Amino acid sequence: MRANVMLKFVSNDPDQKQTPGSVNKLFRRIFEYIWQNKFIFLAALGIIFCLSILQIIIPQIARYSIDVVIPEKKVNLLPWIAAAILFVAILRGVLDFSRLYLMSLFGQKIVESIRNDLYQHIQKLSISFFDNQRTGDLMSRLAENVNAIGSLVSSDVSEILVDSLTVLAIVTYLFSADWQVALLLILTWPLQIYITQVFSKFIQGAYRDVEDQAAAINNQIQDTISNINAIKSFGNEKYEIDRFSEQSRNYAAVNIRAIRLWSIFVPTIDTINIIASLIVLVVGSWAVIAGRLTVGELTAFFAYTNQVSKPILRFSKMMNVVQKALVSSERIFAILDTEPEVKDRENAIDLTSVQGRMRFEAVDFAYNQGETVLHNFTLDIQPGMSVALVGSSGSGKSTIAKLAARFYDPQKGMIFIDDQDLRDISLDSLRSNLGIVSQETLLLYGTIRDNIAYGKLEATDAEIEAAAKAANAHDFIMGFPDGYNSIIGERGVKLSGGQRQRLAIARVLVKNPQFVILDEATSALDTESEKLIQESLSKLLKGRTSLVIAHRLSTIQNADLIVVLEGGKIIESGTHAELIAKGGRYSSLHNIQFTQKSTLPEQTEMIDTNQNKINQIQAIAELA
Ligand SMILES: Nc1ncnc2c1ncn2[C@@H]1O[C@H](COP(=O)(O)OP(=O)(O)OP(=O)(O)O)[C@@H](O)[C@H]1O
């Protein structure tokens, strides 16, 4: 399944060829969004139709002046003609304003629907989906790709509709006025279309490069800003600046190439249009001399020649926009079509009263096919029990926690809450009964109050304060000038590690779940913070069923059950006393950690052999 997801996204290469079938399907799907706003669209269409009629009327007024008013010296008609031109101009202005406004409204509504659908869907997707995604890529789908569709359906579609209707109306009129001159006018069209096609192929390629480079720059900015600590700690600022300058240079180069192509293309088409005008002038003048055309008709012909040349340029520009929008919609629908791997079953039940038992029965799990992480894992956690998972790095401790939270489903075996299969429980109700304090404390940009209330959005100030007090966080919060309203920066960067952990504990306390998953922090805190955190943790775990992923054995001696894992299998389990008495793996890990603790600098000389040191380092590395 994961492989499929990967393939799906790899296949979103913008260079991929779109088959007519896939293009039709994309248009159909975009049309579904258009149809949701059909009234605005139809109103805009009506206006567009009126605008194309007006485009024909103005040259006709000029023709009437030249052919009738001037030769017949009908001076009294001049004010009427002026009034007619003024009226048509104002009407055109009002209609154009309405068209622009309605089409922008229409585009914005479509963009809003697609963006919301996409965000909603991304929120529903399983963790496994995010394992394979780059944040920068998802962000570009939500922002640029959605806007590309918006720009197509708003301004560009309306322009192309105005253009098409205008060209159609003009050509019909010209043929009815003088088909021979009309034919000469459109004589250059095949050449213009051919040149446009050739150029658009190059221009599209150039724009693709521009997009690729823009994406590369975005990804680099996103990567480097979110990892600024790593860059600074390695002193790699210069390296990053050089890398960025190169990307920036490449970006400028592809942009310049695209502009160069446009700069050749536009004058070429202009020159052909001038040639077309010349043909119309020469042949039209000859037709006037021969008495087949009036001077006014020739003037109108000129005006129309000008009017039809603009759409041809715009059509070529449109081809780019359509291509861009198709690529964008393909990328968007690829996400919308991705089914969440973990989702509610039909008739999923809500957990109402929870006793608090959690049971794993013969669970097998692999993130990737064939790479088993857990094998035949069985564990029965009684209500209110605290179970600690111990084992070397990669033995599967966090994976068990992720399965309990149903971030993934096991391939074999079952997990139960009380007597209910986890897969039958609605995800909302499962997660509302579950609190997770993870190793890397996940705080959001905002105030301390908002971050604690994230556990229970409707929490009152009193509840938030009570939770903060229980988590030993109240005092340090009140130490900030703005107290609970202090802004803590992105990912809580303005707090110390211990403060972040206590906020995370307060957040779960305010949620008050029956089950708690605690991924213990690996880094040791100073004794004072450690004591404060241990205190708040014992309040958090009291009376709840808990699964504690332990990295330091000193913190789990009071657990009701300690499970030792190795390679995704339980190798021993029991209480601290039982496991120590047994003298197995736990006992040896404990001895090593204990020895390590007692070998503080002043006691280092007590370690008599180098082998002892090596053992300690290995054991610490395993446990971290
Ligand atoms: N999202 C993932 N995709 C693929 N493999 C993963 C993923 N997460 C973990 N693994 C693999 O699963 C195995 C178990 O990882 P897990 O995180 O459960 O170990 P752990 O015991 O919690 O380790 P640690 O103590 O270092 O946190 C490891 O081999 C790891 O590489």
TrEMBL record:
Residue stretches making up the ABC transmembrane type-1 domain: 42-324
Bilayer topology: Multi-pass membrane protein
GO molecular function: ABC-type oligopeptide transporter activity; ATP binding; ATP hydrolysis activity
One of the Pfam families matching this protein, by short name: ABC_membrane
TM regions (residue ranges): 39-58, 78-95, 264-289
Gene3D superfamilies according to UniProt: ABC transporter type 1, transmembrane domain, P-loop containing nucleotide triphosphate hydrolases
Protein name listed in UniProt: ABC transporter ATP-binding protein/permease
Top-level taxon: Bacteria
Domain ABC transporter, chain residue ranges per copy: 358-592
Alphabetical keyword list: ATP-binding, Membrane, Nucleotide-binding, Transmembrane, Transmembrane helix
UniProt-listed CDD domains: ABC_6TM_exporters
The keyword ATP-binding appears for this protein: yes
Any one cellular-component term (Gene Ontology): plasma membrane
Signal peptide (residue range): none
Localisation per UniProt entry: Cell membrane
